Amino acid sequence: QVQLVESGGGLVQAGGSLRLACAASGRTFSTYAMAMGWFRQAPGKEREFVATISWSAGNTYYADSVKDRFIISRDNAKNTGYLQINSLKPEDTAVYYCAASIQYRSAAELHGLYGYDAWGQGTQVTVSS
Questions:
Q1: How many CB atoms lie within 10 A of CB 82?
Q2: Residue 24's CB: how many other CB atoms inside 10 A?
Q3: H or E element at residue 108
Q4: Which SS3 state, helix, strand or coil, does residue 115 take?
Q5: What is the pLDDT of residues 34-71, one digit of tens each?
């Protein structure tokens, strides 16, 4: 139905940057895509919302903790979303997941785990001191 594959993670030094990508495939996504979100989960922590973007209008929303350093974007023609992470900090270390919504949901719903219909496998981001 919808397949998502993240890429771009790795081991970087504090202060560096990464651009994560989320490639979506399947006719369901191409036809019904409403939004794409990014979440992250550190060891022993709950999965937390990072950012989301509406697929047509490109409206963006960020968690307050990352708004000054992260940029979410998408290329509709390529069915690909991106998360640019600047000024990386050790506390950014986590597995980063992208997720797709293929039906209408409110902005509030898109800030939570239940606002999405498909998830990628995740990509590891590790920031060294």
A1: 19
A2: 24
A3: none
A4: helix
A5: 999 999 999 999 999 999 999 999 999 999 989 899 99
Q: Residue ranges of the alpha helices (H) in 14-69?
A: 27-32
- Tell me the CA distances in angstroms from 44 to 1, 36, 49, 128, one per residue in order: 31, 25, 16, 18
What tokens does 22 get? Answer: 């989320």
Is residue 54 within 8 Å of residue 35, measured between CB atoms?
yes
Distances (CA, A) of 104 to 3, 23, 39, 55: 19, 21, 19, 11
Q: Are strands 60-62 and 123-128 parallel, antiparallel or unpaired?
A: unpaired
Q: Where are the alpha helices (DSSP H) in the chain?
A: 27-32
Helix (H) or strand (E) holding 102: none
Beta bridge partners of 84: 19, 71
Tokens of 90: 């050790």
The structure tokens 């594959």 sit at 5
Give the helix ranges, DSSP H, for 15-103: 27-32
Residue range 82-105, pLDDT digits in tens: 999 999 999 999 999 999 999 999
